[in-house]
């Protein structure tokens, strides 16, 4: 059975300062409470406790100074980008040996594009290239005129429990669309992603017959998904080079890390 989930979340980031301060206060309270109950009143231990609290406060200040910094050179934001079209693969299976995520495709408004040879599961080898930035902007605007950013389908996830899936993320200013689905992966495994049973195609039925029995909202989701994926492939550059970059995930924030060789090549191309 497919589970329909919403991926519309409040735009909040993890605050490491509050977490560190809260952790310090909890530790201090527990230790102090324990010392009072045991009748411990040694001055030396009090000094030691004060040192611990001071250390935690210093750590909070250090974290605060780095949490709001811009990404370093060579790092392209994805989940926090102001403009991006991205597709990646993840495996949330209980015993998954390689959960990912693995990038499948990403394009930024400056015309930089990165993609994998594997259109379904992503991963290296990666390729990169440049296109006219207007093409990326026009596609982002096209999705807006189509109503993608306002339709309820934009934040749905149709994935089976404890499974792998593909996720599409589109960010354009204050607009956002984030969809997840496992139907491409299921059909690669000789199954069909339906809302009935496990999606296996009986010998007595054809794939088209099963799709015809699907609810309208399921078919609409699949249409929007296929149309979005197709339009993204139209952004692939005619010329490309192998990229040694990698997808990085830190504190739930996804970015693309360019390799030093890639950065040098980009600088040469921009100078031409």
Please provide a written account of the structure.
- With 272 residues, the protein is of the alpha+beta class.
- It has 2 domains: 16-67; 75-271, no CATH class.
- The protein contains 7 helices and 12 strands.
- It has helices spanning 16-37, 43-67, 133-146, 183-188, 207-212, 216-233, 260-271, and strands at 3-6, 75-77, 83-91, 102-107, 112-116, 126-130, 156-159, 164-172, 175-181, 241-243, 246-250, 253-257.
- The strands form 2 sheets. It has a 9-stranded mixed sheet. Strands 2-12-11 form a 3-stranded antiparallel sheet, with no helix packed on it.
- The relative contact order is 0.15.
* Spatial sequence of strands, sheet with the most strands: 1-7-9-8-3-4-5-6-10
Outline: globular
Strand content: 15-25%
Secondary-structure element pattern, one letter each: EHHEEEEEHEEEHHHEEEH
* Separation, N- and C-terminal Cα atoms: 54 Å
- Could you describe the largest sheet, including whether it forms a barrel? 9 strands, mixed
Domain count: 2
Content-based structural category: alpha+beta
Number of helix segments? 7
Uncertain stretches: 1-14, 33-45, 57-69, 267-272
Give the rounded overall mean pLDDT. Answer: 75
Strands, count: 12
Write down the Rg.
24 Å
The proportion of residues forming helix, as a percent range, comes to 25-40%
């Amino acid at each position: 059975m497919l589970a329909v989930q919403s991926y519309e979340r409040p735009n909040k980031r993890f605050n490491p300062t509050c977490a560190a301060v809260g952790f310090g206060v909890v530790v201090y309270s527990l230790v102090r409470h324990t010392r009072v109950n045991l009748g411990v009143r040694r001055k030396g231990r009090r000094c030691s406790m004060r040192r611990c609290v001071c250390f935690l406060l210093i750590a909070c200040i250090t974290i605060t100074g780095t949490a709001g910094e811009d990404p370093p050179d060579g790092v392209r934001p994805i989940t926090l980008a102001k403009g991006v079209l991205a597709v990646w693969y993840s495996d949330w299976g209980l015993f998954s040996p390689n959960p990912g995520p693995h990038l499948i495709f990403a394009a930024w408004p400056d015309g930089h594009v990165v993609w994998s040879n594997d259109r379904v599961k992503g991963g290296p080898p990666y390729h990169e290239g440049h296109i006219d930035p207007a093409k990326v902007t026009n596609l982002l605007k096209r999705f807006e005129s189509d109503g993608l950013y306002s339709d309820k389908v934009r934040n749905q996830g149709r994935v089976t429990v404890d499974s792998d899936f593909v996720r599409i993320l589109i960010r354009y200013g204050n607009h956002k669309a984030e969809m997840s689905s496992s139907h491409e992966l299921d059909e690669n495994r000789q199954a069909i992603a339906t809302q009935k049973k496990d999606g296996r195609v009986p010998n007595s039925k054809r794939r088209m017959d099963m799709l015809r029995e699907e609810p309208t909202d399921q078919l609409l989701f699949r249409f929007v998904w296929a149309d979005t994926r197709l339009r993204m492939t139209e952004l692939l550059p005619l010329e490309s080079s192998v990229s040694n970059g990698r997808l990085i995930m830190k504190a739930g924030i996804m970015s693309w890390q360019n390799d030093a060789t890639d950065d040098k090549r980009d600088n040469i191309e921009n100078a031409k």
